[in-house]
Amino acid sequence: MYLGILDTPELASAAAAQIVFSLFKKEPNAILGVTTGSTPEGLYAELRAAHARGEFTLANSQAFALDEYVGISADHYERYRNVLRRELVGSRNTGLKNENLHSPNGLVSNSAAVAAQYDRDIRDAGGIDLQILGIGSNGHIGFNEPGGSLVSRTHVTPLSRQTILANARFFGHYPRNVPKTCITQGLGTIMEARILLLLAFGENKAEAVAQLAEGPISARWPATITQMHPEVYVVTDAAAASKLELSELYQERWALKFGA
Ligand code: PGA
């Protein structure tokens, strides 16, 4: 695991974008795993800016969403497919084509079958080359909440109370408006991506980041499973790194790999 600690979310997003760019220089058709939430917004802005400069494109790529709400209406602003379309799709965005943006369909009654098919779709496409991740303050990645299986496949699952409260800000601050169920890539699915790029910003992520890097692997903090992944980049701002014990060591390793 490489941990990059930058002063601000803006600098961290730019550093994370460099990791995406260096993969796409080598593999212009790489398959991207994409997530939603506040955290990746700066990274997506970097990708759009590079696309506008003609330096980067997802025109030849496919992207797979990390998760989706179940039962949210097709045109809802917060449906993750719609969020990702706004962030990434279109010739003036990153070049990603709508038909190449894959997301679990949370609108059909048999969402368990949708979940199982989603794993097959990822595999049939050749697997995800780089998965972008955020982290919940409770240590979740995707909607893999504490206490769940560390080897799960894409599955249907209820949101925890903590996650419903955290996501209420996207639903007029009304927890009751937040969907109660979602389809999420499982931790086993996420771990099959060839590269993991996890971003975390803000003081309220500091405990989760400390556990992620330094805690024992445990379903209590689902993101700790990424310690078992061979190529993980965690990029944080100073606040999210504030509870790490070995931050100097991580910065030394990061500087050796990427330059100071
Ligand atoms: P956030 O969510 O980016 O909106 O903080 C991250 C997550 O819950 O995974």
Structural notes for this entry:
This protein has 260 residues and is an alpha/beta fold. It is 33% helix and 15% strand. It has eight helices and ten strands. The strands form two sheets. The chain has a seven-stranded parallel β-sheet with strand order 1-10-9-6-2-3-5, sandwiched between helices. Strands 4-8-7 form a three-stranded antiparallel β-sheet, with helices on one face. Strand 9 (195-200), helix 7 and strand 10 (232-237) form a beta-alpha-beta unit. Helix 1 (9-26) crosses helix 2 (41-52). The mean pLDDT is 96. It binds 2-phosphoglycolic acid. 2-phosphoglycolic acid binds at residues 37-39, 134-136.
Task: List the topology elements.
Blueprint: E1 2-6, H1 9-26, E2 32-34, H2 41-52, E3 63-65, E4 67-69, H3 80-88, E5 101-102, H4 111-124, E6 130-133, E7 155-158, H5 161-167, E8 181-184, H6 187-191, E9 195-200, H7 206-214, E10 232-237, H8 247-258
Parallel strand pairs: 1-10, 2-3, 2-6, 3-5, 6-9, 9-10
Antiparallel strand pairs: 4-8, 7-8
